[in-house]
Structures are given as C-alpha cells and as structure tokens.
Amino acid sequence: MNERELILQILLEAEKTGSFTGVILNQVLDKYDYLEPSEKRRIKRTVNGVTERQIELDYRLGLYSKTPVRKMKPLIRCLLRMSTYQILYMDKASDFAVCNEAVKLAKSHKFSQLSGFVNGVLRSIVREKDTISYPSEEKEPMRALSIRSSIPEEVLQLWKDAYGMEKTKQMATEQLESRPLSFRMKLSLEKEEKDALLEKMKAEGIQVTPHPYLPYAYLAEGMDKVTEIPGFAEGLITIQDVSSMLPAAYAGIRSGDLVVDLCAAPGGKSLMAAELTGPEGMVYARDLTPEKIGKIEENAARMGLTNINTRVWDARIPDPDLAGKADVVLADLPCSGLGVLNRKPEIKYHVTKESIRELVQLQQEILRMGVSCLKPGGKLLYSTCTVNPFENDEQADFIQNELGLTPICFSSDRPDDAALSRLQIFPGEAGDRANMDGFFLALFQK
To answer: With a threshold of 0.90, does the pTM exceed it?
Structure first.
C-alpha cells in the first residue's frame, strides 16, 4: 500500500468512526513499521496537517466546487482535503503529481465518474494557490481568523469574550505551530546521571534543551519514536507536557502523603506524585476503564514505582475506602481540551456550548466526590487542560463558594507563582511559558 493510499485510509477511518486521527495514525505506523522514516514523517505530517487545517482546506475547496464539501462522498472529501494540503503546504510535492495521483486514487476506489471533478478542482487550486483571497480581517475579523486558523467561530468568540482579541489571535496562531516534545527526568536522578543521559540523547542526534519553567523538564526534537529516546525504556524519563507536570509540582505533596488522583490516565501526574510522596506514601490512581488503568500500570512498572494503587472507578461515585483519608487530591478533570489543540486538533471541531455545559456538570459531580476524600487540612488541586472561564475560574469559584474549601497559595519553587492560588497558562505565551499547553490550576484546603 503506497503512502497516499495509507493517508487516505487513515483520514477516511477517522471520519467514519469519529476516532482521533492520532490514534489511527499510530496504529497504522505500527502496522507498517517497515516504512522508511522519511515516509512515516510525510504520512504523519499530512494526516496531522489535514486535521489541523480542515476549515481552511474546505474554504479553498468551496471556491471551486459546486458541491458543498459537507455533501461530497466521504472518500472524495478526504481525497480532496489531503491533496489540497499537499499542494499548499508540502514543499517537496509536485503539484501536478498530486493531481494525477488523486485521479488514480479516485479511479482505484471505483469513483471514475468523479475523477474529472477531482482533477478540475485540484488543478484550479494549483493555478490560484498563491493568489487566493481570504475574507477581510477588517470587515469580517472572526470569520477571517476562523478560516486562517481553522478554529470554529464559536470557539474564537468564547475566547474573545473572555480574554480579548489579541489573546485570541495568539492562541489561534499557536495551535498551528509545530512544537518540540516535552519530557520529565526522574526526580531522583543526580546531576551526573542527567548529564550522562543527555549525552546519550545527543549522540543519537536528538536535540534536547532544558525548559526554563521547571528544572526537571526538557524539550526534545529529532527523534522518530518517543519510545526509543535513551532513558525511556529504563524508566528514567516520562513523556509529559510541562503544563501537566504542574499539578503534582504545585500541590505541595510531601513524603509519606496519601494522594488520590481522580482521573489519572495516562499516569504522568500519578508517577510524579509517587516520586514526591516516596515509598512511605501511596498514590491511589483511579480512572474509568481497564484500558486507561492498564496504561497507568504500564508506566508505573516502567518507572519502577510500586507505591501506586490502581483501580477502575467512576470518579463521580464516592469511594468508601478513601473517604476522609487523603492528604492531597489531584483533580485534573475531563474538559473541553481547548489548551491542547496543538496536539489534539480534532477537539476544536466538537466543542459546543451544550458540550461545555455537560462538562461543567460532570466536573462538579467529580469535585464533590473528590472533596469527600480529603482529611481535615487536606489539599485539592483542581486543573484542566483548557482555556475557558466556565471550566476554570468559575469552577474554582464553585469549589470555594459551594464546596466550602479555602483557596491557598501554591507550594512552588517559582517565586512568581508561589504567591498564587490560581494560574491560567495560555498557549502561545512567550518567555518561560513558551512551548506549554494551555492549562489552569487552582489550589484549595479543607
């Protein structure tokens, strides 16, 4: 199966099943592991690019097709999107080779009657790819930004109402930028061990730089598979965005603490909490499915951590075994995910006012249960990977006003953060917060 056929099948499977393209992409690349690294990179870039820029691609196609994109045959729609992305954004792709291959693919899938349509639309895009006009930013600012960033106007309007247009543009632009991989070194590593590990990475052509926000966080580029990074198999590093390291870092976890991680998969927070609480303490990691719990157990085994107790559990249901016992509850809850569009671009196409209302209700149900786990004086760290006041500041208000917890300042080595009880990190920030997911944290005490 050739490269373009694989891309088409991934996009078509995602459209038919509603699954994230990233999940399907990883499954396909594992199945066809014999492909050259350059082929894998092109497949990954095209699949991710089509997903990231879907609104823009559909706008382009709509200029040359009498049939609305939403009414096209699914295979033709996916074929045109991927071909348009290759024409616009793949420098090494020959434009007319892309057109010819698209025609061949249409015919091979028994759409010969539409091959002329496919050819005509794509050749029009080739001819006018550098002269196309977009909606005016002055007359239609939201529509123009929506098309250029491929973010639905409803999401952009939510951001604009809450944070203003400048911050909205910043976030919309950032989610289309490529970012290095973030990872965390095991907290117990000595400087000499860290330096030796960094030298191994350098020897394998991986470019690693320390992240300025946390001393154990690093950014890496130049590898094909994260599992092949030196130190990963040995449990010396864990793949985790810098933002998602903050809940465990800022909750003030001490040696010997009993920590409850309500929605723990894939386990990054639980792993870090287990290191901080040490063998004298225990982390109770809970999540909704055996598959998610299995991922936590797999990561704990790789890191050599034995003080993590896992269980399949619906976080809305009180756990009598943990009632009133927790020193720290980590409540990193299901959310709209608007802070991680750079890594999970499909999210932006599914966020609606109704879905946010449902999430807010779910979050509050889980928070009520989480508070029941706290002992007197225990702390709850609420966090989400979104940028949305309804799920962030308003939920922090709910914890304080409805659940009766007291806001307290973060326990942090960073003097600019330690005096805060709430923190919103925006995608696309500069300085120390560059290359971080959008994230929200708030710390409370019972």
So the answer is: yes
